Amino acid sequence: xxxxxxxxxxxxxxxxxxxxxxxxxxxxxxxxxxxxxxxxxxxxxxxxxxxxxxxxxxxxxxxxxxxxxxxxxxxxxxxxxxxxxxxxxxxxxxxxxxxxxxxxxxxxxxxxxxxxxxxxxxxxxxxxxxxxxxxxxxxxxxxxxxxxxxxxxxxxxxxxxxxxxxxxxxxxxxxxxxxxxxxxxxxxxxxxxxxxxxxxxxxxxxxxxxxxxxxxxxxxxxxxxxxxxxxxxxxxxxxxxxxxxxxxxxxxxxxxxxxxxxxxxxxxxxxxxxxxxxxxxxxxxxxxxxxxxxxxxxxxxxxxxxxxxxxxxxxxxxxxxxxxxxxxxxxxxxxxxxxxxxxxxxxxxxxxxxxxxxxxxxxxxxxxxxxxxxxxxxxxxxxxxxxxxxxxxxxxxxxxxxxxxxxxxxxxxxxxxxxxxxxxxxxxxxxxxxxxxxxxxxxxxxxxxxxxxxxxxxxxxxxxxxxxxxxxxxxxxxxxxxxx
Amino acid sequence: xxxxxxxxxxxxxxxxxxxxxxxxxxxxxxxxxxxxxxxxxxxxxxxxxxxxxxxxxxxxxxxxxxxxxxxxxxxxxxxxxxxxxxxxxxxxxxxxxxxxxxxxxxxxxxxxxxxxxxxxxxxxxxxxxxxxxxxxxxxxxxxxxxxxxxxxxxxxxxxxxxxxxxxxxxxxxxxxxxxxxxxxxxxxxxxxxxxxxxxxxxxxxxxxxxxxxxxxxxxxxxxxxxxxxxxxxxxxxxxxxxxxxxxxxxxxxxxxxxxxxxxxxxxxxxxxxxxxxxxxxxxxxxxxxxxxxxxxxxxxxxxxxxxxxxxxxxxxxxxxxxxxxxxxxxxxxxxxxxxxxxxxxxxxxxxxxxxxxxxxxxxxxxxxxxxxxxxxxxxxxxxxxxxxxxxxxxxxxxxxxxxxxxxxxxxxxxxxxxxxxxxxxxxxxxxxxxxxxxxxxxxxxxxxxxxxxxxxxxxxxxxxxxxxxxxxxxxxxxxxxxxx
Lengths: 484, 484
Known about the structure:
- The structure is a homodimer.
- Chain A is an alpha/beta fold.
- The first copy, chain A, has three domains: 10-63 and 177-286 and 418-483, FAD/NAD(P)-binding domain (3-Layer(bba) Sandwich), CATH 3.50.50; 68-173, no CATH class; 290-409, Alpha-Beta Complex (Flavocytochrome C3, Chain A, domain 1).
- Chain A has 14 helices and 22 strands.
- In chain A, strands 1, 2, 3, 8, 9, 10, 11, 21 and 22 form a nine-stranded mixed beta sheet that branches. A four-stranded mixed beta sheet of chain A has the order 4-7-6-5.
- The radius of gyration of chain A is 24 Å and the shape is elongated.
- The mean pLDDT of chain A is 95.
- The interface between A and B is large, with 60 and 60 residues.
């Protein structure tokens, strides 16, 4: 077929002389969301075809830490000794995923989490039911449960009963790889056809606005593929598209490390826009500022360029990064005294050392007396076991009084920050993609980071694989049912 | 014609059996941007039709303070004694309109500002060449020049030579009304047909993606209008659409006062999205926290709920509002001592009075000692004429030591904040509307708050009428030229 409309990223059905291929459900992008969409569609008995621009499936999911945000009282949570419920999970996520959380999505995600956990396990993904307590985020061993957000930090711990919900597949590190090997193996078992090196160039739209299929470049040829049930877009975010970042999320460009496979260039988001889809929260991102591990780093004091504290130091690295980048102009520092000195495992420059706060201020260009006042106030209260400003947890609240003092660099332009995008196509709780007027575009579904998911802003780790797998399944199922 | 596609907000040209009306340039929405688009198109000799959903033109522009952001050395600036240049204007706007300013738009806007000023004057808009010094924003008299941004506040005053660029039409108050009466009178003189009570329901798109016209409901009837040159969307922002706010800019919903005519419901933005247009910065807004006038309010001390200062108190009310809403969770307070006490002209509750900071802390629920430390540090430096944290200007830097102290409420949920949206369709410096892949959608133009303009974030007052009129003219001209 001709390809004159590739710049527009949309083709009209009438332009398609004949479909080079036909299927019931066409999945574009075979990461975690795409694999789950394909599996769930295939389970209904329809024909499923998955396209992957790389030579094989996996995508960013395979490169990730493999954390899946699930809860409500899973077997893993129970065995590890945690009491969780769908309602507590909902309270946390609704509070954390704001402002402006998608209440319908959060509700569906929490109500369906136990069933989703069972389905994931059924696919062959194993979790060791042991809690890893030493810090939040992916454990260095095969423990299966971690805090992956702010559940146990103030004020979140007052809003909902804390429970860890980061479920990590059983392997020593690189759990994302294991997760994807397992899911892709199920895709193969299910007889789902996967075409690699297949780059989708645009959706095919009917006169009534519905989606009839897609056009892809496969092995140098332009191939039209009709999809009687629908097309599921699971192409990932756009952290590797400089132009889209500059337009929509310029601050994310400042982060030194971009979390994403090469194909995370927003192609699916742009294809969706070309057929009239709405986007949401394109400026948002997950910004990790990993000062932990070790967790004892939380005993330090974080301050901004005015020498002020601005957050409890024991919050999750995602919230910390978001605050520093979006609220503190990307500038923060982390102070220890000699008695509590600890080096963050992920290397960070020691930018100032001195026997007094005044020496540190001079070295850092912080206004004289500003840090001194901050530290004095902090110590005065810490001695009483209080942090009246930000309510840091008691395990980490110690006075910092023993010289010399050392300061680590937490500035975005000078130290390690990791980012990926959280904005994308607007989809509803059925994974239907919505137009600007809020109506579903018939035949178009999406999940994973091609969409704006559960949290943007207010990210907790595991939500991308979590909502990607959850709403990926829904996308596959809805597209399959539509074919009937 | 039929109207089955109104939910989609897009019609296909082939569905249009015949055009009920034809014109060369169709302008949708007759505020400042629309009037300027219509005038410039008509000046080329083509046929122009303007639709306005209200009974007559004016829109939000007519309700506004009438400030037009122009500079580079206008006659008004010169006579009032200010030295400005396109380059200084460019330096300021590029720095202020970030992160991620649209450099091409800023450049065009600054390079063309002198010509644009001359054109505005040529339309019959008069400016008294007198600078109003007493505060920033619309003057209470007929003075024609004001600071309407952060040009003279730190750090902006170090980036570019400060010059006021807010040009205000000559009338005592309600200058926006005068501006629009003048422009609409020129529209009438030019023989441009205006249809009131005409609500546009969607754009008409050809198979190749270009825009052929629009469909409007006029007097209860669905009317198709062909536009050989193009359609110019100047429908305003979406501050009066609760659903769009909740989705895209939820924090703006917390602002007590919404700046916008009833029709600012984002209809043009949604129509654009329906034909594949990209949007930009939908989460951004102009957030005014008008603690001035009088300007002497800047002698007070602004603090957050942790009792910390967070900004120089002499910044423009737009930057202040943006910081409080987006960075301080909407919570701020303004403190005076007895010697410098002044009441903001726009009423604000006095929420605490006390002889010591400790009393204020107790009344406000601020952590004990936090405000005390902040005030002591501020006073110590102010006595030396220094504000090392935020560099407030010397005119307002006085110690606050004379009890009793009073604190005004500057919390978004409890006091006056004014907001309108700054995000919208993505357009380029020619006012062409761009698709998700960055290509112009042929025949579609937009300007004013239906687009994301010069500043989002980083708003200075007068930029909406400023970029609306400037890029409105470009939209009209480009559409007219395309007809040839």
